[in-house]
Amino acid sequence: MRKMFLAVSALALLGACAPKAAETEAAAPVEAVEAATPAEIHATLMVLDSHLDTPANLSNPDFDIMADNPRKMGSVQVDVPKMTRGGLDGGFWVIFTPQGPLTDEAYEAAFKAATARQDEILKMVADHPDTFELAYSADDAERIAASGKFVVLQSMENSYPLKLDVSNLETFYDKGLRMVGLIHFRDNQFGGSATDFTSPDDKGLTDLGKDLVREANRLGLVVDGSHSSDASVRDMMEISTTPVILTHTGLKSVYDHPRNITDEFLKEIAAQGGVIQINAYSGYLEELEDSPERRAALEQLKVEFEGVNPFTADDETKARYMERMEAINAEFPAPRSTFEKFMEHMLRALELVGPDHVGMGADWDGGGGVEGMEDVSFLPKVTERLITEGYTEEDLKKIWGGNLMRVMRQAEAAKETTE
Question: Is the pLDDT confidence value at 288 over 50?
Answer without folding.
Answer: yes
